[in-house]
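Support request from a user on the community tier.

User writes: "When I paste my structure tokens into the form, the page sometimes reloads and wipes my input. The last time it worked, I copied everything first. Here is what I submitted, just in case something in the input itself triggers the reload:"
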């Protein structure tokens, strides 16, 4: 349809013309045909509703989507939830192809907002922090800036006085956990160091933030025994595409001790088949080369050639449900691990299911006689102090040096 006829067309015709291309877009993203048909029903109903309201495609906004979903509140919640998901994806498609204006992005143009954005850039680009770390630091600093800014969006004169910083820390940490206090103090020191390095402050006030003592872990970390690891790997059903994907992920966790986030970030270009190496994108944007072990290589090749399918994503591991993009994050790997543990009949409490394999690998190495430096190199720890927690799990080695408890009168 040419631009000259857009003004004369009815709103329903305009939306109808976008439905089939939208459905083809869903098919290309890997949606099953029965799901596409259900979404066609929702898009068609919305086109008819928009025609009655005289709303053209180019005039749509997210308020129209909400009104369409709420048009009949007596419908089942499950159906409304499906309609909402279908319409959100249809609206995103229209925003990218039909000139529909998406929801406005709120820009904070104040001096405080600009300072916060520069600090975020500093964390990502200069410090190379992982996104999860940025999401921890920034809210603390946002609260600090909000508490010490004026109505005009500028910082108060005494915002960066030593006493102001101390009072804010004390007020925010009253009746809060030790970990919350530690993270707040770390964030404040990072922010004040940034201000000094970028000439916003004449002196480095990061030293004015008191340190929060953190006692090192005294409880041995939870881990999987070698026989439990093999039981988990054996219990994974490799006759299905999902099972083959999960098996490759579990091998990377068990044999190389990768972190969940490193598995999510693994790209097709990170596998060097001829050299027999894998590039691992670790914490702080560190790049490490690890050996592509034979069983890992076979599992990866089977998944990529038989099950991964075509996708615009360059991530190795994709979602099994449409859209076939990369895994959402480390939590997705944790979910895969918990399902695998349940299949193998293994119960472990607490968070960090994926780390059970990493702890298990370190424990096996130390019981096989590996030194701390070797374990630190395999797990890619920046400090051997981090590796030291695994000395607590070598109970057999401790028994060889423990002296017998003396009996009565000094007799053994």
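"...and here is what came back when it finally went through:"
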């Amino acid at each position: 349809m040419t631009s000259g006829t857009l003004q004369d067309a009815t709103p329903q015709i305009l939306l109808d013309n976008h439905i089939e291309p939208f459905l083809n877009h869903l098919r290309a993203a890997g949606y099953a045909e029965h799901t596409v048909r259900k979404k066609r029903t929702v898009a068609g109903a919305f086109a008819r509703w928009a025609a009655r309201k005289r709303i053209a495609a180019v005039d749509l906004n997210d308020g129209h989507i909400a009104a369409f979903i709420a048009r009949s509140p007596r419908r089942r919640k499950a159906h409304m939830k499906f309609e909402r998901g279908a319409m959100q994806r249809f609206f995103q498609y229209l925003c990218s192809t039909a000139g529909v204006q998406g929801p406005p992005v709120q820009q904070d143009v104040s001096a405080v907002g600009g300072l916060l954005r520069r600090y975020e850039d500093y964390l990502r680009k200069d410090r190379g922090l992982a996104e999860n770390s940025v999401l921890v630091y920034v809210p603390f600093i946002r609260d600090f800036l909000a508490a010490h800014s004026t109505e005009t969006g500028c910082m108060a004169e005494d915002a960066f006085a030593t006493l102001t910083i101390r009072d804010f820390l004390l007020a925010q940490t009253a009746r809060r956990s030790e970990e919350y206090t530690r993270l707040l103090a770390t964030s404040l020191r990072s922010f004040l160091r940034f201000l000094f390095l970028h000439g916003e402050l004449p002196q480095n006030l990061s030293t004015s933030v008191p340190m929060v003592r953190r006692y090192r872990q005294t409880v041995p970390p939870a881990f999987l025994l070698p026989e439990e690891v093999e039981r988990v790997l054996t219990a994974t059903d490799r006759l299905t595409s999902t099972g083959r994907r999960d098996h490759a992920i579990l091998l990377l966790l068990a044999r190389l001790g990768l972190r969940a986030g490193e598995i999510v970030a693994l790209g097709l270009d990170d596998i060097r088949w001829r050299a027999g190496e894998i590039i691992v994108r670790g914490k702080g944007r560190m790049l490490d080369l690890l050996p592509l072990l034979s069983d890992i290589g076979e599992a990866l090749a089977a998944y990529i050639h038989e099950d991964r399918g075509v996708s615009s994503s360059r991530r190795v591991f994709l979602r099994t449900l449409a859209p076939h993009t990369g895994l959402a994050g480390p939590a997705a790997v944790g979910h895969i691990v918990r399902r695998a543990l349940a299949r193998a009949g293994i119960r472990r409490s607490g968070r960090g299911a994926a780390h059970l394999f990493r702890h298990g690998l370190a424990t096996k190495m130390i019981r096989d006689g590996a030194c701390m430096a070797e374990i630190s190199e395999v797990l890619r720890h920046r400090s051997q102090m981090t590796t030291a927690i695994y000395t607590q799990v070598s109970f057999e080695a401790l028994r060889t040096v423990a002296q017998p408890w003396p009996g009565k009168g000094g007799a053994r």
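Agent notes: The reload is a front-end session timeout and is unrelated to the input. The radius of gyration is 28 Å. The chain has three domains: 3-97, 111-208, 229-350. Escalated to web team.
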